Amino acid sequence: MKIKEITAFPVRIPHGDESEGKDRPAVIDFGDYFVDEQAFTSIYSKHHETTVIKIETDTGIVGWGEAQSPVSPRTTQVIIEDLVRPLIMGRDPFDIEAIWTRNFGAMRERGHPTGFYIDAIGGTDIALWDIVGKATGMPVHKLAGGRYRDKVKLYAGMGGTDPEKVADTAEEHVGYGYQALKLHLLLDAEGVAEIARAVRKRVGPKIMLMCDVHMRQSVTSATKLGRELEKLDFTWLESPLVPDDIPGAVALAESLDMAVAIGEWSRTRYEMREAFERRAYDIVMHDIARTGITEGHRIGTIADTYSIPVAPHVGGGGILSVASTVEYSASCSNFMIMEHSHHANSFKNAITAENYEPSNGYFEVTDKPGLGIEIDQSLVEKYVVS
Ligand SMILES: [Mg+2]
Protein backbone atom coordinates (compact mmCIF):
# COMPACT_ATOMS: atom_id res chain seq x y z
CA MET A 1 0.00 0.00 0.00
CA LYS A 2 1.25 3.48 -0.84
CA ILE A 3 0.31 7.01 0.21
CA LYS A 4 -1.20 8.72 -2.84
CA GLU A 5 -2.23 12.12 -1.42
CA ILE A 6 -2.41 14.16 1.77
CA THR A 7 -4.78 17.10 2.16
CA ALA A 8 -5.08 19.53 5.07
CA PHE A 9 -8.37 21.29 5.77
CA PRO A 10 -8.08 24.34 8.06
CA VAL A 11 -11.53 24.60 9.63
CA ARG A 12 -13.38 27.19 11.67
CA ILE A 13 -16.66 26.05 13.23
CA PRO A 14 -18.90 28.58 15.00
CA HIS A 15 -19.37 28.06 18.76
CA GLY A 16 -22.84 27.16 19.89
CA ASP A 17 -21.90 26.83 23.53
CA GLU A 18 -22.92 29.23 26.28
CA SER A 19 -22.17 27.29 29.42
CA GLU A 20 -18.50 26.29 29.53
CA GLY A 21 -16.61 29.53 29.71
CA LYS A 22 -18.34 32.59 28.30
CA ASP A 23 -18.35 34.02 31.81
CA ARG A 24 -14.65 34.89 32.06
CA PRO A 25 -12.46 37.81 33.13
CA ALA A 26 -12.02 40.80 30.79
CA VAL A 27 -10.29 40.18 27.46
CA ILE A 28 -8.60 42.26 24.76
CA ASP A 29 -10.43 41.74 21.47
CA PHE A 30 -8.45 40.99 18.28
CA GLY A 31 -11.28 40.28 15.84
CA ASP A 32 -11.61 36.49 15.61
CA TYR A 33 -9.14 36.11 18.47
CA PHE A 34 -8.74 37.41 22.02
CA VAL A 35 -6.34 37.35 24.98
CA ASP A 36 -6.89 37.92 28.66
CA GLU A 37 -6.48 41.52 29.73
CA GLN A 38 -4.83 40.78 33.08
CA ALA A 39 -2.37 38.01 32.19
CA PHE A 40 0.12 37.12 29.46
CA THR A 41 -1.54 33.80 28.71
CA SER A 42 -2.73 32.04 25.53
CA ILE A 43 -4.47 33.62 22.56
CA TYR A 44 -7.86 32.00 21.89
CA SER A 45 -10.28 31.94 18.98
CA LYS A 46 -13.92 32.93 19.34
CA HIS A 47 -14.65 29.87 17.16
CA HIS A 48 -13.59 26.22 17.14
CA GLU A 49 -10.53 26.08 14.88
CA THR A 50 -8.41 23.08 13.94
CA THR A 51 -6.71 21.36 11.00
CA VAL A 52 -8.27 18.16 9.68
CA ILE A 53 -5.94 15.88 7.70
CA LYS A 54 -6.95 13.37 5.03
CA ILE A 55 -4.52 10.78 3.66
CA GLU A 56 -5.47 8.75 0.57
CA THR A 57 -3.83 5.48 -0.47
CA ASP A 58 -3.54 3.62 -3.77
CA THR A 59 -5.91 0.95 -2.40
CA GLY A 60 -8.74 3.44 -1.93
CA ILE A 61 -8.46 3.36 1.88
CA VAL A 62 -8.61 6.86 3.35
CA GLY A 63 -7.38 7.89 6.82
CA TRP A 64 -8.35 10.97 8.82
CA GLY A 65 -6.31 12.80 11.44
CA GLU A 66 -6.20 16.11 13.26
CA ALA A 67 -3.34 18.47 13.99
CA GLN A 68 -4.72 20.54 16.82
CA SER A 69 -4.69 24.19 15.74
CA PRO A 70 -6.70 26.28 18.20
CA VAL A 71 -5.48 29.37 16.32
CA SER A 72 -4.22 29.82 12.75
CA PRO A 73 -5.08 26.41 11.25
CA ARG A 74 -3.83 27.71 7.90
CA THR A 75 -0.29 27.71 9.31
CA THR A 76 -0.62 23.96 9.87
CA GLN A 77 -2.09 23.54 6.37
CA VAL A 78 0.96 25.16 4.76
CA ILE A 79 3.32 22.92 6.78
CA ILE A 80 1.41 19.83 5.62
CA GLU A 81 1.39 20.93 1.98
CA ASP A 82 4.96 22.23 1.71
CA LEU A 83 6.89 19.94 4.08
CA VAL A 84 4.98 16.82 5.16
CA ARG A 85 3.51 16.07 1.72
CA PRO A 86 6.85 15.61 -0.12
CA LEU A 87 8.27 13.62 2.83
CA ILE A 88 5.48 11.02 2.91
CA MET A 89 4.25 10.66 -0.70
CA GLY A 90 4.63 7.10 -2.03
CA ARG A 91 5.45 5.63 1.38
CA ASP A 92 3.75 2.58 2.91
CA PRO A 93 1.35 3.80 5.67
CA PHE A 94 2.38 0.78 7.78
CA ASP A 95 5.82 2.41 8.24
CA ILE A 96 4.28 4.66 10.89
CA GLU A 97 7.22 5.00 13.28
CA ALA A 98 9.72 5.36 10.46
CA ILE A 99 7.59 8.10 8.90
CA TRP A 100 7.31 9.97 12.23
CA THR A 101 11.09 9.76 12.72
CA ARG A 102 11.77 10.99 9.17
CA ASN A 103 9.30 13.87 9.62
CA PHE A 104 10.68 14.85 13.03
CA GLY A 105 14.31 14.73 11.92
CA ALA A 106 13.61 16.82 8.81
CA MET A 107 13.13 20.05 10.79
CA ARG A 108 14.90 19.29 14.08
CA GLU A 109 18.18 21.01 13.28
CA ARG A 110 16.24 23.98 11.94
CA GLY A 111 14.75 24.68 15.36
CA HIS A 112 11.27 23.14 15.11
CA PRO A 113 11.20 20.51 17.87
CA THR A 114 7.73 21.63 19.03
CA GLY A 115 4.75 23.82 18.06
CA PHE A 116 2.97 23.88 14.71
CA TYR A 117 5.42 21.56 12.91
CA ILE A 118 5.09 18.78 15.50
CA ASP A 119 1.30 19.25 15.56
CA ALA A 120 1.33 18.73 11.77
CA ILE A 121 3.36 15.51 11.93
CA GLY A 122 1.28 14.34 14.93
CA GLY A 123 -1.95 14.82 12.95
CA THR A 124 -0.36 12.93 10.03
CA ASP A 125 0.53 10.10 12.41
CA ILE A 126 -3.10 9.88 13.57
CA ALA A 127 -4.34 9.60 9.95
CA LEU A 128 -1.80 6.81 9.28
CA TRP A 129 -3.05 4.84 12.31
CA ASP A 130 -6.60 5.25 10.94
CA ILE A 131 -5.46 3.79 7.60
CA VAL A 132 -3.66 0.84 9.20
CA GLY A 133 -6.74 0.12 11.32
CA LYS A 134 -9.04 0.22 8.31
CA ALA A 135 -6.63 -1.91 6.23
CA THR A 136 -6.51 -4.62 8.91
CA GLY A 137 -10.12 -4.31 10.05
CA MET A 138 -8.88 -3.55 13.57
CA PRO A 139 -9.49 -0.64 15.95
CA VAL A 140 -6.38 1.48 16.53
CA HIS A 141 -6.15 0.57 20.22
CA LYS A 142 -5.75 -3.14 19.33
CA LEU A 143 -2.78 -2.30 17.13
CA ALA A 144 -1.22 0.31 19.43
CA GLY A 145 -0.77 -1.78 22.56
CA GLY A 146 -4.05 -3.64 22.99
CA ARG A 147 -7.19 -3.05 25.00
CA TYR A 148 -6.54 -2.25 28.67
CA ARG A 149 -10.15 -1.19 29.34
CA ASP A 150 -13.64 -1.41 27.83
CA LYS A 151 -14.56 2.19 28.57
CA VAL A 152 -12.62 5.42 28.92
CA LYS A 153 -13.46 7.57 31.94
CA LEU A 154 -13.94 11.29 31.28
CA TYR A 155 -13.91 14.45 33.30
CA ALA A 156 -15.94 17.40 32.10
CA GLY A 157 -14.40 20.88 31.93
CA MET A 158 -16.13 24.13 32.79
CA GLY A 159 -15.22 27.69 33.71
CA GLY A 160 -16.58 30.94 35.09
CA THR A 161 -15.99 33.73 37.58
CA ASP A 162 -19.08 33.61 39.78
CA PRO A 163 -19.03 30.90 42.50
CA GLU A 164 -22.74 30.09 42.38
CA LYS A 165 -22.89 30.08 38.57
CA VAL A 166 -19.91 27.71 38.36
CA ALA A 167 -21.57 25.52 41.01
CA ASP A 168 -24.74 25.51 38.84
CA THR A 169 -22.71 24.36 35.81
CA ALA A 170 -20.98 21.70 37.92
CA GLU A 171 -24.31 20.38 39.16
CA GLU A 172 -25.66 20.37 35.60
CA HIS A 173 -22.73 18.18 34.45
CA VAL A 174 -23.18 15.76 37.36
CA GLY A 175 -26.73 15.47 36.03
CA TYR A 176 -25.31 14.34 32.65
CA GLY A 177 -23.55 11.48 34.44
CA TYR A 178 -20.01 12.83 34.95
CA GLN A 179 -18.37 11.72 38.18
CA ALA A 180 -15.34 13.97 37.61
CA LEU A 181 -15.20 17.70 36.83
CA LYS A 182 -12.46 20.22 36.12
CA LEU A 183 -12.76 23.92 36.79
CA HIS A 184 -10.92 26.35 34.52
CA LEU A 185 -10.48 29.30 36.87
CA LEU A 186 -8.76 32.41 35.58
CA LEU A 187 -8.70 34.40 38.82
CA ASP A 188 -6.26 35.12 41.62
CA ALA A 189 -5.69 32.39 44.20
CA GLU A 190 -8.35 33.77 46.57
CA GLY A 191 -10.98 33.92 43.80
CA VAL A 192 -10.13 30.36 42.68
CA ALA A 193 -10.45 29.03 46.24
CA GLU A 194 -13.81 30.72 46.70
CA ILE A 195 -15.25 29.04 43.58
CA ALA A 196 -13.67 25.71 44.53
CA ARG A 197 -15.42 25.86 47.93
CA ALA A 198 -18.80 26.65 46.31
CA VAL A 199 -18.48 23.76 43.85
CA ARG A 200 -17.39 21.21 46.45
CA LYS A 201 -20.29 22.25 48.69
CA ARG A 202 -22.74 21.88 45.81
CA VAL A 203 -21.62 18.54 44.31
CA GLY A 204 -20.76 16.79 47.59
CA PRO A 205 -17.76 14.68 48.61
CA LYS A 206 -18.00 11.86 46.05
CA ILE A 207 -17.41 13.83 42.83
CA MET A 208 -13.76 13.98 41.70
CA LEU A 209 -12.73 17.63 41.29
CA MET A 210 -9.73 19.20 39.57
CA CYS A 211 -8.68 22.80 39.05
CA ASP A 212 -6.81 24.33 36.08
CA VAL A 213 -5.43 27.83 36.73
CA HIS A 214 -3.80 28.32 33.29
CA MET A 215 -0.29 29.43 34.33
CA ARG A 216 -1.45 32.41 36.38
CA GLN A 217 0.17 31.61 39.73
CA SER A 218 3.57 31.98 41.33
CA VAL A 219 5.11 29.16 43.38
CA THR A 220 4.04 31.01 46.55
CA SER A 221 0.43 31.66 45.52
CA ALA A 222 0.06 28.16 44.00
CA THR A 223 1.34 26.59 47.24
CA LYS A 224 -1.21 28.56 49.25
CA LEU A 225 -3.98 27.71 46.78
CA GLY A 226 -2.96 24.05 46.77
CA ARG A 227 -3.32 23.93 50.57
CA GLU A 228 -6.90 25.24 50.22
CA LEU A 229 -7.72 22.74 47.46
CA GLU A 230 -6.30 19.89 49.55
CA LYS A 231 -8.81 20.73 52.31
CA LEU A 232 -11.55 20.42 49.66
CA ASP A 233 -10.19 17.05 48.48
CA PHE A 234 -9.36 18.24 44.94
CA THR A 235 -7.46 15.60 42.93
CA TRP A 236 -5.09 17.89 41.05
CA LEU A 237 -3.95 21.47 40.58
CA GLU A 238 -3.25 22.00 36.86
CA SER A 239 -0.86 24.32 35.00
CA PRO A 240 -0.14 26.58 37.99
CA LEU A 241 3.08 28.06 36.53
CA VAL A 242 4.45 29.09 33.14
CA PRO A 243 5.60 26.00 31.17
CA ASP A 244 9.32 26.79 31.31
CA ASP A 245 9.49 26.90 35.11
CA ILE A 246 10.52 23.30 35.72
CA PRO A 247 12.30 24.10 39.03
CA GLY A 248 9.09 25.81 40.20
CA ALA A 249 6.99 22.77 39.20
CA VAL A 250 9.40 20.49 41.09
CA ALA A 251 9.21 22.68 44.20
CA LEU A 252 5.41 22.73 44.04
CA ALA A 253 5.12 18.98 43.48
CA GLU A 254 7.33 18.43 46.54
CA SER A 255 5.56 20.89 48.83
CA LEU A 256 1.94 19.90 48.10
CA ASP A 257 0.26 16.65 49.10
CA MET A 258 -2.18 16.97 46.19
CA ALA A 259 -1.04 16.17 42.65
CA VAL A 260 0.21 18.85 40.30
CA ALA A 261 -0.77 18.06 36.68
CA ILE A 262 1.11 19.64 33.78
CA GLY A 263 2.39 18.92 30.29
CA GLU A 264 -0.37 19.80 27.80
CA TRP A 265 2.06 22.12 25.98
CA SER A 266 4.72 19.43 25.41
CA ARG A 267 4.85 17.29 22.28
CA THR A 268 7.81 14.93 22.41
CA ARG A 269 9.78 12.82 24.88
CA TYR A 270 12.83 14.93 24.16
CA GLU A 271 11.00 18.06 25.28
CA MET A 272 9.72 16.29 28.41
CA ARG A 273 12.82 14.42 29.51
CA GLU A 274 14.02 16.95 32.07
CA ALA A 275 10.56 17.23 33.66
CA PHE A 276 10.40 13.42 34.02
CA GLU A 277 13.94 13.14 35.38
CA ARG A 278 13.36 15.89 37.94
CA ARG A 279 9.88 14.61 38.82
CA ALA A 280 8.10 17.81 37.85
CA TYR A 281 5.03 15.72 36.89
CA ASP A 282 2.72 14.13 39.44
CA ILE A 283 0.32 13.56 36.55
CA VAL A 284 1.30 14.07 32.90
CA MET A 285 -1.26 15.40 30.43
CA HIS A 286 0.15 15.31 26.89
CA ASP A 287 -2.28 15.96 24.04
CA ILE A 288 -2.59 13.29 21.34
CA ALA A 289 -3.55 15.80 18.61
CA ARG A 290 -0.17 17.45 19.31
CA THR A 291 2.02 14.37 19.93
CA GLY A 292 0.28 11.94 17.58
CA ILE A 293 -0.49 8.40 18.76
CA THR A 294 3.04 7.06 18.17
CA GLU A 295 4.90 9.66 20.23
CA GLY A 296 2.01 9.86 22.70
CA HIS A 297 2.55 6.17 23.50
CA ARG A 298 6.28 6.70 23.94
CA ILE A 299 5.60 9.53 26.42
CA GLY A 300 3.04 7.35 28.24
CA THR A 301 5.58 4.54 28.54
CA ILE A 302 8.20 6.89 30.00
CA ALA A 303 5.56 8.15 32.45
CA ASP A 304 4.87 4.55 33.45
CA THR A 305 8.60 4.06 34.13
CA TYR A 306 8.37 6.91 36.64
CA SER A 307 5.02 5.66 38.13
CA ILE A 308 3.24 8.73 36.75
CA PRO A 309 -0.42 8.48 35.65
CA VAL A 310 -1.50 9.86 32.26
CA ALA A 311 -4.51 12.20 31.98
CA PRO A 312 -4.62 13.16 28.28
CA HIS A 313 -5.41 16.79 27.47
CA VAL A 314 -7.99 17.41 24.73
CA GLY A 315 -8.83 21.06 25.35
CA GLY A 316 -9.71 22.83 22.14
CA GLY A 317 -9.17 19.73 20.01
CA GLY A 318 -11.85 18.69 17.52
CA ILE A 319 -13.70 15.42 17.12
CA LEU A 320 -10.72 13.56 15.61
CA SER A 321 -8.66 14.70 18.58
CA VAL A 322 -11.37 13.21 20.84
CA ALA A 323 -11.54 9.90 18.92
CA SER A 324 -7.77 9.45 18.71
CA THR A 325 -7.47 10.18 22.44
CA VAL A 326 -10.11 7.53 23.21
CA GLU A 327 -8.14 4.97 21.15
CA TYR A 328 -4.91 6.03 22.85
CA SER A 329 -6.46 5.93 26.33
CA ALA A 330 -7.87 2.44 25.73
CA SER A 331 -4.35 1.21 24.95
CA CYS A 332 -2.38 3.13 27.61
CA SER A 333 -1.43 1.03 30.68
CA ASN A 334 -1.14 3.99 33.08
CA PHE A 335 -4.19 5.93 31.83
CA MET A 336 -6.03 7.78 34.59
CA ILE A 337 -8.81 9.92 33.08
CA MET A 338 -9.45 11.86 29.82
CA GLU A 339 -10.46 15.50 29.37
CA HIS A 340 -13.82 16.21 27.72
CA SER A 341 -16.01 19.25 26.95
CA HIS A 342 -19.63 18.15 27.11
CA HIS A 343 -21.30 21.01 25.24
CA ALA A 344 -18.42 21.63 22.83
CA ASN A 345 -18.72 18.05 21.60
CA SER A 346 -21.86 18.96 19.66
CA PHE A 347 -20.15 21.56 17.46
CA LYS A 348 -17.04 19.39 17.17
CA ASN A 349 -19.43 16.81 15.64
CA ALA A 350 -20.30 19.23 12.81
CA ILE A 351 -17.93 17.26 10.50
CA THR A 352 -18.99 13.68 11.36
CA ALA A 353 -21.37 11.49 9.38
CA GLU A 354 -22.59 9.97 12.65
CA ASN A 355 -22.27 11.67 16.03
CA TYR A 356 -19.35 10.54 18.18
CA GLU A 357 -20.60 10.93 21.76
CA PRO A 358 -19.91 9.56 25.23
CA SER A 359 -22.60 8.48 27.63
CA ASN A 360 -22.75 8.84 31.41
CA GLY A 361 -19.20 10.16 31.63
CA TYR A 362 -17.52 7.43 29.58
CA PHE A 363 -16.62 6.66 25.97
CA GLU A 364 -17.26 3.01 25.14
CA VAL A 365 -14.24 1.38 23.50
CA THR A 366 -15.59 -0.15 20.27
CA ASP A 367 -14.37 -2.73 17.73
CA LYS A 368 -14.83 -0.36 14.80
CA PRO A 369 -11.80 -0.29 12.46
CA GLY A 370 -9.33 2.60 12.64
CA LEU A 371 -10.32 5.50 14.87
CA GLY A 372 -13.95 4.32 14.87
CA ILE A 373 -15.31 7.60 13.54
CA GLU A 374 -16.77 8.58 10.15
CA ILE A 375 -15.82 11.98 8.75
CA ASP A 376 -18.01 13.57 6.02
CA GLN A 377 -15.68 15.48 3.69
CA SER A 378 -18.49 17.68 2.36
CA LEU A 379 -19.11 18.88 5.93
CA VAL A 380 -15.39 19.48 6.51
CA GLU A 381 -15.28 21.57 3.30
CA LYS A 382 -18.22 23.61 4.51
CA TYR A 383 -16.11 24.97 7.37
CA VAL A 384 -12.79 25.49 5.58
CA VAL A 385 -11.21 28.88 6.35
CA SER A 386 -10.58 30.72 3.11
MG1 LIG B 1 -5.05 22.71 31.02
Offer a quick outline of the entry.
The chain has helices at 73-88, 96-108, 116-136, 140-143, 163-175, 189-203, 219-231, 246-255, 269-277, 288-305, 319-330, 344-348, 377-382, and strands at 3-13, 27-30, 33-36, 44-45, 48-57, 62-67, 151-159, 180-184, 208-212, 236-238, 259-262, 283-284, 338-340, 362-364. The chain has 386 residues and is α/β, with parallel strands linked by helices. The protein has 2 domains: 3-137, Enolase-like, N-terminal domain (Enolase-like, domain 1, 2-Layer Sandwich); 143-371, Enolase-like C-terminal domain (TIM Barrel), CATH 3.20.20.
State the helix count: 13
Integer tally of domains: 2
Unreliable residue runs:
none
Q: Could you tell me the strand content as a percent range?
A: 15-25%
Q: How much is the average pLDDT?
A: 96
Which fold does the CATH topology of the largest domain refer to?
TIM Barrel
Biggest sheet features:
8 strands, mixed
Order of helices and strands: EEEEEEHHHHEHEHEHEHEHEHHEHEH
Question: What is the level-2 CATH architecture name of the largest domain?
Answer: Alpha-Beta Barrel
CATH superfamily of the largest domain: Enolase-like C-terminal domain
Level-1 CATH class name of the largest domain: Alpha Beta
- Report Rg: 20 Å
**Helix fraction bin:** 40-55%
The ligands bound in this entry are:
magnesium ion
Could you tell me the number of beta strands? 14
Report the end-to-end length measured between terminal Cα atoms: 33 Å
Label the structural class.
alpha/beta
Question: Which outline best applies?
Answer: globular
Pfam family, one: MR_MLE_N
GO molecular function: lyase activity
Domain Mandelate racemase/muconate lactonizing enzyme C-terminal: 163-259
InterPro entries: DgoD-like, Enolase-like_C_sf, Enolase-like_N, Enolase_C-like, Mandelate_racemase_C, Mandelate_racemase_N_dom
